[in-house]
Amino acid sequence: MAQQRGSGVADVVRRLAAVPGREDRLTHLEVLPARPPRYAEWPAWASPRVLTGFAARGADRLWSHQAAAADAAHSGTHVVVATGTASGKSLAYQLPALTAIEEGRGARGQRGATVLYIAPTKALAQDQLASLVGLGVDLRAGTYDGDSPLDQRDWVRDHADYVLTNPDMLHRSILPGHVRWAAFLRTLRYVVVDECHHYRGVFGAHVSHVLRRLRRVCASYGAHPTFVLASATVAEPEIAATRLTGLDVLPVTGDGAPRGEVALALWEPPLTSYVGENGAPVRRAASSETADLLADLVAEGVRTLAFVRSRRGVEQVALTAAALLAEVDPSLPARVAAYRGGYLPEERRELEQALRGGDLLGLAATNALELGIDVSGLDAVLMAGFPGTRAAMWQQLGRAGRGAQDAAGVLIARDDPLDTYLVHHPEALLGRPVEATVFDPSNPYVLGPHLCAAAQERPLTTDELDLFGPGARSVVDALTDAGLLRRRPSGWYWTDRRRAADLADIRSTGGPQVQLVEAETGRVVGTVDGGRSHSSAHEGAVYVHRGETYLVESLDLEEHVAVIARADPDYSTSAREVTDITVVQERQHRHWGECRLSCGEVDVSHQVVSFLKRRQPSGEVIAEEPLDLPVRTLRTTAVWWTIPDDALAEARLDPEVLPGAAHAAEHCAIGLLPLFATCDRWDIGGVSTARHADTGRLTVFVHDGHPGGAGFAERGYRAAREWLIATREAIGSCECAEGCPSCIQSPKCGNQNHPLDKEAAVRLLDVLLEHSDGSQE
Ligand SMILES: [Zn+2]
Ligand SMILES: [Zn+2]
């Protein structure tokens, strides 16, 4: 394919779709034309030595977004640069940061300006360090993370101008020990927050308070650093950046980097002859379809990477593709492989070489691939299922045709409402982004521990509370009543003997973590958030951890331990739960005609009652097994809507269809919220009822699954109109007769997906949406 030009990549896709029997599978083909670069000149303020470093690396001019962001940062404006994968975002902050370091350097080489770089992972910080060192600029840079030896940590703290760390180290080490960091913090000029779209949900709320604590400590040393954030392309990056830092942040979104022609195909697997729950049709598995397409592409000599969710799926795709190729040509199966991870560096280099040279034509991999191997510049990418966010999709797609080279990508839908909606609504993937990075800094469960940590770092004064949001005062008062803080004339003091920073585990989303212990070795393989343990680590669950498949043998809720064993079952499991909700307080509402849309605090009680076993890859349900797990309660945030009886009667929605209509609308709305809020459908839950005790009306709730809320329901409230229009559309346009997993059936429904009324759900949503354009607060 490399020798083909123009619409060659689109032709590749068309040939895949032209295979007899595949007539209806290509739902959309979008050919994005090649985009020429938009250049800008190097700014006059940039240090000549830094420019020489970049020039030596081949960057002879800037792209327009790099110049805009660098100029803003240099002038002291907080900025977020939200452009595509491989658009050179690093340069936008490295240029002002390195210039400041060089200009600040004293006559005897002492440091005069410092930079703190924060990445969500250690690996990313290591990559950044390598790119800085390669510039050949006079720079003292080092990583400060859990892997750094102690003597290196001391050196970094005392001598480095450019420190690369993560929010965990900032939270647990740098801020509590700020006195030892005083010299570094006093001269802190820039704080870089890289890949900031990772900070979402409860983790995002934690990180937002860690950054506020950083700002406060810096201010106490007289430093007011400029924040530069880098994000994937998302909706409203400046809103997320402002929430994350508490500062006004300028967005830079116009991507000036060049791109080759991209043909993006949206692909829907066909219905199979299997019969699903309640007689529903079942679609062919995305992984099976991916294996077919991988075989076809390899047979054509197209270098292809297939992304599959689990390692087991990866093996399956590679083996199936190889078997199909053996029928074509006995030499071809050897040119397809599964990327298993855990390779030695030389093995990885060999693999990269084989792909680049064309000896290997097809590779199936999980996302684990994103660490440690460079396979850029392939011809095509297959994605077995939407990878969760648009940002992640473009990142996977970016593995093909890096830079100005042409590329083809195929997104193959899984049998769920989100994937089905996306392959029929290309505008949701290609138009203005609707997904926003979402989190809620006002969550009191998250805020409390950070206020304690802040008070231990320096006594908290009344004036400083504003930094932590309008709810901070009441949380401080509660902490004072609980005896954790003591109020003195000069402020609130931490009085406990413990380290306050230990109160918050910023990677946990609530409740004690459950350890996954391998039965055979006693080794802790990983952890599951307490909040998710009932649904994902119950006895009998198939658990996929970093691509490996395990079977849970037992779950001990008192010891917070799940015993697991490596296994290779031919089925997957999904837990089903029943939920109840009471309204604690409505915080905001608006009227859509007679209907009312609300957002507020709720008490949720939920119980995992059973789990389903589904054969893989067909998805056929083979068993449902009961579970005996306790009810759990949760105070959190929900969005809900109510419709009065007379509006229902007017639309001829009879009382007997209402429970099924509301239930179907609830399921599909949960399935589609991840399109608007960067969450997973497992992060949220819902309840629907034809009459709710607290509202007295037909009510549908969608709630956050974390104590205090993660911001997802709130985003649902803000984007309600678009979200519910999409929900109505997904139900109405689904080709099934009475409901299926692509529209209204939910894998986590504790009521066996019963009752569900597809047709009435559409009419119900029509009633709700009828006056949605003229909403009043
Ligand atoms: Zn359907
Ligand atoms: Zn349900």
What attributes does this structure have?
single chain; alpha/beta; seven-stranded mixed β-sheet; seven-stranded parallel β-sheet; binds zinc ion
Report on the architecture of this protein:
It contains 24 helices and 31 strands. With 777 residues, the protein is an alpha/beta fold. The N terminus is likely disordered. The chain is globular, with a radius of gyration of 27 Å.
Short description:
The chain has 777 residues and is of the alpha/beta class. The strands form 7 sheets. The protein has a 7-stranded mixed sheet with strand order 1-11-18-17-14-16-15, with helices on both faces.
What is the mean pLDDT?
91
Question: Structural class of the secondary structure composition?
Answer: alpha/beta
* Beta-strand percentage range: 15-25%
> What is the number of strand segments?
31
Apparent shape: globular
Total of helices: 24
Oligomeric state of the chains in view = single chain
Low-confidence stretches: 1-6
Question: What share of the residues lie within helices?
Answer: 25-40%
**C-alpha termini separation:** 56 Å
Widest sheet: strand ordering: 1-11-18-17-14-16-15
Small molecules bound:
zinc ion
Question: What's the Cα radius of gyration?
Answer: 27 Å
Main β sheet profile: 7 strands, mixed
